[in-house]
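Quick one: structure for this chain?
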Amino acid sequence: MLSAEDIVNKQFTTKRDGYDPDEVDDFLDEVVKELRRIQIENDGLNQKMLAAESRVAELQRNGGPIAAASPILGAAETGTSSQLLQLARKLHDQHIQEGYVERDRIIEEGKNQVTRMLAEAELRQRNEINVLDQQRIAVEREIERLKQFEKEYRQHLRQHLEKQLADLANSGQESASTF
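Got it. Here's what it folds into:
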């Protein structure tokens, strides 16, 4: 059976882009609080049942009819001690069963919340990956554009320098031919 201490002491491993540890801790705190409340309620019901059983035993020892003076049983029903004890046990079992149902409901609700949180985290992760992929593609395109620009710039620079050298060579030949 899962106890509040089991929940409090449970350690989870963390992974990148996993659950938010603070959200998980907060939720587990809520689960522990509710589990402890149910346990206290269960303990109180057990005490009431023991008190009722004690009262039944006392009435049996006194040998008189058993009047339903117990607050558990309500108004003025009468019956045998075994019937009263059976009713007390039935009420106890019913409360225990309700506690189990409530515990199972809380655990199921917790599992559902964890599943939703996981799905949301996975969706955020996929969206972030898509954004990063789009940014990567844009950067790669920009790199290609800059490479093409560099190639064209070098080609224009080379052509310009070759023209300057040719002009310089031509002006040098013209100067030499005038002498």
